[in-house]
Amino acid sequence: AGRAAGADSRDRALTDRDLAPLRERGIPIRQRSRWFRAVSAVLTETQAAELRADPRVLSVRPVARLKRDRDGEAGDESEAGSGRAAARRDPRTTDPRALTGADYGAAWEQLEALGVPEMHKLGYSGRGVLVALFDTGFYKTHSSLSELDLVAERDFLCGDGNVQHTEGDECGTRNADNHGTYAWSALGGFAPGIHIGAAYRASFALARTEDVDREVHLEEDHYIAALEWADSLGADIVSTSLGYRVFDDGTYTPEQLDGATIPISIAASIAVERGILVVTAMGNSGAGTSTLIAPADGIGVAAIGATDFAGNVASFSSRGPTGDGRTKPDLLAHGVYTSCATASTPQAFSRVGGTSLATPLVAGLAALLLEAHPDWDPETLLAALRAAGDRAASISNTHGWGVPDGVAAHGAGGARLRIAGARWSDATGEEVFPDWGDSARIAVRIRNDGSASSPEGSIRMSDPTSLLVFPDTSAFALARLAPGESDSLVIPVMIPDGSGFALSHLFLSIRTGEKTVVRKARLPITSPYALRRFDAEIDAAGAVRIEWKVDPGAEIPPGTSFSYRILREGEDGIRVPIHDAALDWWVDEIADRPPGEGRFLYFLEVIFAAGLYVRQEGPRTIEIGTPVETALEQPFPNPILLRQGRTLAIPVAWAREGTPAVGIYDPLGRRIRTLRGDDPGPGYSLIRWDMKDDRNRAVPAGVYQIRLPGGKSARAVVVR
Asked: What global pTM score does this model have?
């Protein structure tokens, strides 16, 4: 059992007498459970009826269909590394204090949010902690995993001791290794300069409990058997992104997710009682009431939701409460574009999304804390993580206690210097976007979020991409900061001509007294987008018409990716994505119908570099009340002769607040002009069109469509 528990009656093995009802009937046993005093087996209906009638059998029930908490990859895989995680002589393999900011590679943001790099600087890396992972399979020969301390493995599907797919393996394919590889590498991968896991010096036990390649019913007894196996090994932490609600005989209701009904949840709770911290995914079913999956409802289990890089709860992250009213999730971590290894080649890395990726990050942080506090039991450990959450003062079934700060959970108080903001600026302090060959300034604000004042110190800059050139002296003085106080500094920098500069991650090494912390400032890209229009208006039918026009710039920097999304926020404060797409030069519009009446806010987010940078426009506020009637009458003169000075009159009967507006669409259906009336509020407006588009160019002859928000339209024929 785990560190805080000893043997109890659940450790007694099943005897021949216990198993006699099955053996007498020649029924093969598939899995045994000491904890439940039960076994699993494949039965015919006749055998099931006979066993139910046998007085030695307490009950017979069907097992569940297990579902993986499925995730989607975001972005292309990349090849990196030389084929081995690191040479054993590398001091970073044994001393986490030797790691630099650049060593973390793409994993920096997801770990910094949890305070993991600071825990590494304190000397913690998970050493002496045994973490068990249950998943679909694991690519053990990946360069970031092959040097880790793997102490045990078991395939509960094939019944052997190898959790990686091999040629001739009838229990799955190579693809089955992907999901487990994601999770294991996020927790413990080690490839300096490319990717670092939170607890790369922990010991690991790997269990394969699910087949994803065939239509087979994978039973909860595999998971329960793996829990008992992990317990027998003395595991301290179990990290798993498996869960389910769908069964052969139906679906569990929210009320049954009470921690005391579903066998897999009961088993997870037993593991916690026996001294094992069980860290599990909330699921990817999104907003709603009680959308979580089992065993996230287990008593004492740490259920993990997902955030994006900006700290917002991911739209797909499941919500609580449990069936008995407990708040879920417990904690959050990055689950959008999370850096991890993949099983395609020994050097492949990617960014993947889902609560499955947030879960091992928290499990890795828990391993660091358990290394620092080996006497902590699961209850104490989870309580420390919750208390250190950034939403601990306002817990909810959307975000739980929030994203935990490892250093705060560890109990290391004092000053905590963080970057509160970083941007390009000119000599006057105004925001600018430099280009290649420019001399520029970087304005950085440092804030003390700790409980004590920080002494005077210094800040030194470094750029792992080598795209920025700093002055000869790159150390800057930092004033003494009281708790909550900020200081600003301006860093001169040169961007070499022709460097291909697109993005910059500036590392700041902050030294105060004997303490040094490393922070990473994220700067906006060059050639930013230009927002031409972002409007939200309600139409007569009660729908909201959202229109936008964005130009990402004539020259998009190399290697820079753009996308965007539209979000709606209701009075409950939850933002729901209602539209997303890749970004090119575009003009677009959608109609949204909010759920009921009330006040709604709309936001446009432009997303750069796989979610690392998000710039937000809005909000645009809409009050949804009783629908009103708005009419569009026939424009005149129609047809209209295209001649200098001629205008088309468009009559609009406007029966609500706001200024009437119409859209002009060319014969190909493209919006070319938006026109507004002069008088706001209900009434009659005559809107005139000067026969030009948004660029002040005369339109050619043809049939044009005029539309009101909501779909009412009229046609105008333009002739020469």
From this structure: 0.72
